[in-house]
Structure formats: structure tokens, C-alpha cells
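Problem 3 from the worked examples.
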Amino acid sequence: MTEDTLRCEIVKFGALLYARGLAHGSAGNLSIRLDDGAILVTPTNSSLGSLTPVKISKVSPAGDLLAGNPPSKEAFFHLAVYEERPSAKAIVHLHSTHAVALSCICHDDSANVLPPLTAYQMMRVGRLPLVPYYRPGDRKLAEAVRRLAGGHKAMLLANHGPIVSGTSLQDAVHSFEELEETAKLFFLVGNRPVSLLTCEAIVELSEAFPS
């Protein structure tokens, strides 16, 4: 796709996520990696429901603004994911209700904060580690994200929300939606006895649908 087409992709999926109630106000950001390593990322203080293609920020791999409006203050952790995960071509980071709620509760195992409830969760999200809390815009968050990005398609920022990467923006969006729906299921089942996927089932899924 051309850069102009990819800008329009960000606008299209931003509007879709906003319309579905997964984004609100000016929270959250989307990005796409270009062939030269630069990224297109949503501008700072912009609503995903009303983006404009020409205003989408273009940022160099070093974090310098190349075109468009000033980028999201969280563009630096997008760059960290891209550096550590060569297969990632796009990233979705939103503050969706159930995933953020999951990020706010205490977890016994920060290496994986969602039990294996469904096959599509394992296929699209996989293990979901919790990244320690850092204030929005803190550059130390990039290093914390970098340590986990290579081995995980998705991660959860404590008291903040998820970061999900994909082979395209559509892939990342679909995986993000699966994560949000799984978080919703997690709260719906609550403390009831749950039939979780077995280790054998998870291995079979990972072999049939490698990430």
C-alpha cells in the first residue's frame, strides 16, 4: 500500500474503533510501520473518531517528526515494539473498559494475567504479560515494553491499557477486539468454576496457528 493509503487505513480503523466504543475522547493511538522503518502514528490530543489523513504524524525510527501534526506522546513505545518485533507492522493501543479494568486489579502472575478461556484468545492474543505502571509519557515505559515485546503480540500496561501488534492494522484491530472481549468474559465468569483450555489444547493451537 502507498503511504497515502495507509494514512486512510488509520483514519478508517480509528473511526471504527471509536464507533464501537473501544476508544473515547482523545485516548489511545494507532500506528503503522512503513517499509523504511518510519511509522505513521495518530497525532497527540486527537480523537480516533475524527482523524484526518494529512494530519497523521510520520515519525522516523529515531523518533523525529517527519510530517503531519506532532505525534502521540506514546509514539516512543510503538517504536520500541517495532524494534523488538520484526513481524509487527501495526499497533493498537486503546483504553477500552474491560481491558483497562483488568490492568487495575492485582494479579498473582504478572507474566500472564488472563486465563486460557477460548481458542480465539490463544490464537489472536496469546499470553498477556502485565507491564509495571509508569505515568503516560514516561520514557522508562519504552524500556519496560521493549523487554516484553519480542515474545508477545499483546501486553497490558498496569493501570493504563493494552498494546497489541499485528501483521497489518486490520490484524492488530481484530486481535485487540479479541482481547477486550476476553477481558469481558473474564469478569462475567467471575469466581465461578471455569473449564479452561488444557496445556495440550494450547500447544495444538500454537502449532496450528503460529503467531
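Problem 4, a separate protein:
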Amino acid sequence: MTIDSSIVQIVIVLGFPYALRFLRSVFVKTPAAPSPFARKNAPPPTKSRWDRSTTLLLLLVGCYHLFMTIFFSPPNIFQALSLAPDSPNFLLHQTWKERAERDAGFMDKYPDTLRERFKAHENRFMYQVFGHDAFLDCDHCNDTSDYTYYLIPTMASSYIVMAVVLGMATTHISHLTKYRTWGVVSLVVVAAVEYMTMSKSIEAGNLTGLKSVQESILGYKGAASVRHLLLTCMSFGLAFFLYRSQPGSGPRDEVEILTDLCQAQEAMIQRHRALHLARIASLRDPLLRKQFVEYWKRREVEHGLLVSDPEYKDARDLALGRIDVETLTREATEYIDAIVKSGERNPIADADSLTKLGQEQTSS
């Protein structure tokens, strides 16, 4: 069984989630979440190793795209020979031959079969728009759509890598989760700008139309330069936000809220257990049990003295005399009966009758 690139790509795609989970377990430790009281009194949190590593990764990705923006120069036979793309065939043939005699490796990079294909100006247009590698390596490409489909995997690789880095920077263990949507939108915008740049050259249709297009945004080279430039700005922007924003800033998510609730609930349970344990320990120890019994005996004596006090009795009887318990019980019974019977009548009329009954009871 031979291992080709397709099998390798499938293995990479299937194994990437497990590799990412392993990296997260290496970089990130998950200690117990602090309680709300500890969170309030805790010092300002410091950045985790995951945030620092992600910031460094974003800077490296940004430097790579910046390098590609400045120094990206795919091979081009017309630039190498200092000829115009629409130069005559005899001039191209003569210049090509003279350059091959001076440079021994020239024919390895630009084979003679390529020169034969350039006799048709339509092939020169395809070469200028889609680049040297696509024109030379794509054997089944005949029109612009074939070349476009051939270049899609190469163009998409940058977006896939950037999407992976964006996912790592805005994962749920980071505090940049709120920027994930904007990051995805930015990737879509970059892809749209690159597609528009590529389409502008394709719509020219021929070498004469390409002369009206600026050379800096011409074909595959211009689209790649635009892509690397925008991804550079995106990488450095994410690194800046990750560096400036503090952990825990912004609105908390559901996981943090539930963690705080669980911590508060656990604190209440532990406090109740501590009181229960203290009471058991007090009852087991002779001295503490004696103090416990004496305390509650004193409380009982104090309560008895309070109840037997004539002034307290008069105040209590006066307060109870102002409350007509029988009337309250009768009115509550009538109100409950009205609510129970309201299910058999019109809900709107019942609501009016209940409102009137409540007003009458209040006035009485």
C-alpha cells in the first residue's frame, strides 16, 4: 500500500483535534475555580502560558505573512528575460536561447516546452494571470475556471492555517472568545478581496486588457500579495488585543457563572457541616456539653421571665386583639372558594368578580 498526499491529509485532519487537545492539556492547567469572595479579593490575574504562547504564535504568523508580502516573487519568464508579455515570438525565442546559453540551469526552471506553448497569446494570458507553477504543472487545465479550481487549495491553505490560529487564540480558555466572530468575518472579507483581485485580472480577457490593470495587483501574484498583507494586519491585530486585554475582562460566560454558583453552594454546605460538627464536638466533650446545656437553660429562663412579665403580656394581648383571626380566616376561605369556582365560569368575568371581592374585603 502506497501512502500518497491524500492519505496524509486525511490523517492530519482526523488527528488535529486530538493534537490540539493534547497541546491544551500541556499548556493549560485547570485548577479549581475560586469562589466569588476569593475572586473579589484576589489580585489582578496574570496571563497564562496559553495566552503567551498564542501571542507568540500570532506574532510568528504575522511575521511570516509580512515576509511573504515584501519578498513574495513567483517565477515569471517575462520578468526574467525583461520582455513584455506580448513581445513577438521570434524575439522571445532568440532571448530565451541566449539566456539558456549563459545560464546552465535556466532550462530546468523554464523548459523548452513552455516556450512552444507561448506561441499562442492566450497561453501567455493564462501564464500572467495564474502564475508559472499553475501553468506548468496543471496538465488538465484548459480555461480560466480550470486554473482557478487548481489554485483554490493553494489559496485556501493560508486561510486554514489562520483559522486554526484564530481558534486557538479565541478558545474557551482564553478571554478573546468575543473576538471569534469578528475574526471569522475578517477571514471572509480577506477571501472576498482576494477573489475580487483575481477576478479583475481574469475579466481583462487578453494581454491588451491586462495593461490597464496595475502591476502590483496583477493576477495570482497580486492576489497573493493582498492576501498576505491583510493576514499580516489581522495577525498583528489579534496579538495586540491578546496582549492588551486582561484575563477575566468583559462579560462572563455561562461556565464562569455556573462555577461561581457551584462554589457559593459548596461554601454554604461546608459552613453547615462545620456548624453540625461543632455541635457534635460540643456535646461529646464534658466541659463543652456542660456549657452548652447551661447556655440553653439560661435562654429558657430568660424566655420564661419575658413571657411572665405583665407589660409583655399586655402588649401581646393588645396586638392580638387588633387582629381578628376569625374574620381573616373567613375572608380567606371565601376568596379561595371564589378562585376554585372561577374555573367553571368565564375567565374575564371571574377576574372582574375576584377584583370586586378583593376590593370589598379590603374596604371592610
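Solution to problem 4. The first helix runs from residue 5 to 27. The radius of gyration is 41 Å.
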